[in-house]
Backbone:
């Protein structure tokens, strides 16, 4: 630590830290002003104020270099930096939507800062006390921030969040090493801190690494959301037609290479136009959303369920051998629905399912979909609320009638 102090000038390090903290604050406050979608604005505001507090703290510590000196300046600067660390933790908890109970560490950190302030104001700026208590308070906050980042639940942000967590962990170790230096040097002069340059250098590296990480997390979150908009149906949350077609063609090509079967289930909500005409489009949207949830809930792991337009859905079963059973399970799940709409009415609906299957993957994707569409048409002609398959000779509906199978 003393070697770092000999190589690097403390005043220069304080100035660079202040400048970088100010630029980081500007970046976060600009993001807050823009208010990107899905990002809690209070988290951006907290980050902006946190780095502004860091910048103000370092600026106060620079004042003696301009012959501006007053009792307690060092304490004020350190307390502002402590406040920045506290606000950084609050910002992380808000941004990651972590439980607010994780902010309990603010209590011991505040107590340590108050003890430090009380000692300095009643005695003098004892570096052993200030470094020990100040680094302990910041260390508690930094470890809490690292833990919150490590537990990021969002897959798109998790890699960057864990990188930021590791950097916070390194920073906590640097703070601990400063405390350890004072513990193992009991005879050191308490009016001067030889670990200052080391701490400022570590803080400089932290700012240079952490701020880009946070901004990178914001970018990844927005990219993931754009991808979701491009691949998901806005009303139902299921994958959209583009994704279904891409996955269908991909799975068909894989089936052809491996000479195995591929099944397609084409689904249509029965009498859906009557719902819109009788209850309005809001009720129609509620029906589609409920049907989508039922289909997704009844599907198995690996089954792809998508909305391909209007009241039509398409399912790619992961296991073609059980596609008929899956189709019946989907039909039954929708038939059991009770859908509440505006006005207190409860609607019920059914679906018709067309099942087409290629045994060796040799069919073209569009031809396979057309076969499923023909089967779906036959299901509707046979009375709806049933499954018709091109792979069987007949399909029995819930009312006991038989739907003629397709050749």
Residues:
């Amino acid at each position: 630590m003393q070697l770092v102090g000999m190589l690097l000038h403390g005043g220069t390090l304080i100035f660079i830290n202040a400048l970088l903290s100010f630029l980081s604050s500007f970046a976060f406050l600009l993001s807050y002003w823009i208010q990107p979608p899905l990002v809690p604005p209070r988290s951006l505001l907290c980050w902006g104020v946190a780095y502004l507090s860091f910048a103000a703290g370092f600026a106060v510590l620079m004042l003696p270099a301009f012959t501006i000196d007053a009792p307690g300046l060092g304490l004020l600067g350190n307390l502002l930096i402590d406040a920045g660390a506290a606000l950084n933790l609050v910002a992380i908890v808000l941004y990651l939507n972590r439980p607010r109970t994780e902010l309990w560490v603010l209590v011991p950190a505040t107590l340590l800062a108050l003890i430090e302030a009380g000692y300095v104001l009643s005695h003098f700026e004892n570096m052993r006390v200030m470094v020990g208590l100040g680094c302990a308070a910041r260390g508690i906050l930094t470890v809490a921030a690292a833990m919150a980042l490590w537990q990021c639940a969002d897959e798109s942000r998790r890699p960057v969040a864990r990188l930021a967590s590791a950097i916070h962990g390194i920073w906590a170790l640097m703070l601990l090493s400063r405390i350890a230096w004072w513990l193992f040097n009991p005879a050191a002069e308490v009016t001067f801190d030889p670990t200052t340059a080391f701490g400022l250098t570590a803080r400089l590296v932290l700012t240079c690494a952490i701020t880009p990480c946070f901004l990178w997390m914001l970018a990844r979150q927005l990219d993931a959301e754009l991808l979701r908009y491009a691949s998901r149906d806005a009303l139902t949350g299921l994958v959209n037609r583009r994704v279904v077609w891409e996955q269908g063609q991909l799975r068909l090509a894989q089936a052809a290479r491996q000479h195995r079967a591929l099944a397609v289930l084409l689904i249509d909500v029965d009498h859906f136009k009557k719902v819109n005409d009788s209850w309005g489009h809001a009720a129609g949207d509620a029906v589609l959303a409920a049907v989508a949830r039922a289909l997704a809930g009844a599907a198995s792991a690996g089954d792809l369920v998508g909305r391909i337009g209007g009241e039509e859905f398409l399912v790619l079963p992961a296991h073609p051998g059980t596609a008929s059973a899956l189709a019946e399970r989907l039909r039954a799940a929708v038939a059991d629905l009770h859908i509440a709409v505006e006005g207190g009415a409860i609607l019920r609906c059914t679906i018709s399912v067309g099942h087409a299957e290629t045994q060796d993957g040799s069919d073209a994707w569009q031809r396979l979909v057309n076969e499923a569409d023909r089967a779906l048409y036959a299901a509707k002609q046979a009375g709806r609320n049933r499954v018709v398959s091109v792979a069987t000779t007949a399909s029995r509906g819930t009312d006991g009638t038989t739907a003629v199978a397709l050749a």
